[in-house]
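Exercise: predict the fold of this chain.
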Amino acid sequence: MFDAAVPVACLGARPEDPIVAGAPYRAYSPRPFLPADRAKVEILFGGLHWRAERVIAAVFENLGYRARPLPPAAKADLLTGRELADIGQCCPTSFTTGNLANFLHGEARRLGADAVADRYVHLTAGACGACRFGQYHQSYELALRNLGLESFRMFLLSQSDMDQGAVAGGGLTLDMPLTIGLLWAILCTDVLQGPRIPHTTLRGGERPNRCGGGGERRSPV
């Protein structure tokens, strides 16, 4: 999946934090995101409809942050997610993992791994617990390790805490104005998207019911 000209294991490797084969597992801990970094750091996010992503970017910008959605996910992202992270994870997680990994890999080739680690952070939603949603961020962490981008900063927005406060370093505050803004962005764009979804009509004006079988008779008009 990756060009051999840039060894995956060397992307982001730093002398002060070497990756030693056989070393014990270390829990991911992002470097501080400082308030002074806001002007030069972009917050990456993705996995939503383009309408929601545009409004979410506006929410961030209204609060003084720079943000950009990841590119639309493609089949190559799915394959990369399967390659770099847990093969047993669900397809949405594989797509998101591979999407983030491919974007960062491309930027590392263009700018260098150190510049990527300093220029971008990733904000993702998650939860606490043994459910799959509670483990998604670990797939991203595993992919970053396999890319050699352990110095890349990733932060978790918990669905169970609307007012988490500042992340490490204080450069990003997960408070009510931000979380409520993100929720409204998703809800409002869902409302806009709903009327645009075409209804499936069977012969004779009949629409299928929610269980996928025959439906009620409707007028062709």
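Check your answer against the key: The first strand starts at residue 42 and ends at 45.
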